[in-house]
């Protein structure tokens, strides 16, 4: 029987499976980065600086005792509510979608930004009467920097075509602009931090009709705790900060429809409602 000494090189497949389970499924740069070496260097730096500056040991410091490892430079942990308040303040300052995009690009308060490759702001026509809001970018969207470009995006394009629309006649965004690692569900805190940005995006785009794709964006934008199968199919409202009331049609997420094709007929009904509403408003 083969013995396991613990010294065998890890099986590459196991390692990759571990990475995938941990949400590490993308190479961000071509060459590996040795984070252990980087942090060892950072930790050594203050001691070296002190030594080269000829600093005497602090009074009371025990010369014979092994030196305590220098603490890494303190990174202030900013509570999520503070980040959400900062996001609200910043978002309210944007007077155009371009300004909002720049503000969001400079905002470091959402941890998802650190692991995402790009910020996925929007696609389509910001002047369109119809705005669609999804949940968060996936792998393809993160790579391209555009919402709904993967398989669910292709289905979304087909759904739009079925009611005579395309990406030039709709504006498309997400509640969260940064891909959660491994496509995990965004946490409530991450959603609250990003909420002011998507709300401002809606207020600035001024769509006549909103369609939410999937449960999270429906719940957030119509302020409901109901599940998507209960919410979908009937008109709800989203009220912007200035009091504008926008009709919202919550519908099923295209990724859900890919997994549950029998429910495509429900989404089809929802989009027929959207078409009728756009016609009623003189948009098509
Ligand atoms: N799913 C979403 O909710 N948004 C995207 O942009 C892609 C997939």
From TrEMBL:
Residues 39-66 have a biased composition (Low complexity). It is an enzyme of class 3 (hydrolase). Keywords: 4Fe-4S, DNA damage, DNA repair, Hydrolase, Iron, Iron-sulfur, Metal-binding, Nucleotidyltransferase, Transferase. Pfam families: UDG (PF03167). The keyword Hydrolase applies. Its EC number is 3.2.2.27. GO terms for biological process: DNA repair. SMART domains: UDG, UreE_C. PANTHER family: TYPE-4 URACIL-DNA GLYCOSYLASE (PTHR33693:SF1), TYPE-5 URACIL-DNA GLYCOSYLASE (PTHR33693). This is Type-4 uracil-DNA glycosylase. It comes from Aminobacter carboxidus. The lineage of its organism: Bacteria, Pseudomonadati, Pseudomonadota, Alphaproteobacteria, Hyphomicrobiales.
